[in-house]
Design a protein that fits this description.
mainly alpha, elongated, disordered N terminus, WH-like_DNA-bd_sf, cytoplasm, RecX_HTH_2nd, Regulatory protein RecX
């Protein structure tokens, strides 16, 4: 075994920082969901038991809080022009429990129909939909953003069909 190979393996098996220092370091840059932080620590080479202790330590000091993280994700998603469905999907991808997601959305004071209208106006202005092709383009955009069909129809004031 060469010196180069042993250095590569050494870095993977024994991280330089303690697991608590690494966890606090990640959380000092930005908030994380518990699952996300756990995965980052695991990828850095820490063991499961150490990770559990670090997670508990961060939660004890309220540095790691999935409810707070979900609130931040919701606020950021709304600012990005995302709809309810897209924000929920992003939360699930980050590993936030479905109970927390439901709790956040139940307490939300967002009018998703008006938010859809605001996003549509910001993207397309007040111009009328002239063709079925234009209608399909706009609806696809809004669906990608995470709005359901009723919200999209409300945003474009669409009662008629082409």
């Amino acid at each position: 075994m060469t010196d180069n190979t042993s250095k590569k393996n050494q870095g993977k098996t024994t991280p330089k920082k303690s697991v608590k220092e690494a966890a606090v370091g990640y959380l000092s840059r930005r908030d994380h969901a518990e699952k996300e932080l756990r995965q980052k620590l695991k990828n850095s080479g820490y063991r499961g038991e150490e990770i559990d202790q670090a997670i508990d330590f961060c939660q004890d000091y309220n540095w790691l809080d999935d409810v707070r993280y979900a609130c931040i994700m919701m606020r950021n998603g709304i600012a990005k022009g995302w709809g309810e469905l897209r924000i929920k999907q992003e939360m699930e991808v980050k590993g936030i429990a479905s109970g927390i997601i439901d709790q956040i959305f139940e307490g939300a004071e967002t009018d998703w129909y008006e938010h859809a209208r605001d996003v549509a106006i910001r993207k397309f202005g007040q111009t009328a939909i002239d063709t079925p092709k234009e209608k399909a383009k706009r609806y696809r955009f809004m669906q990608y953003r995470g709005f359901n069909f009723d919200q999209i129809a409300y945003a474009f004031n669409q009662d008629e069909e082409y």
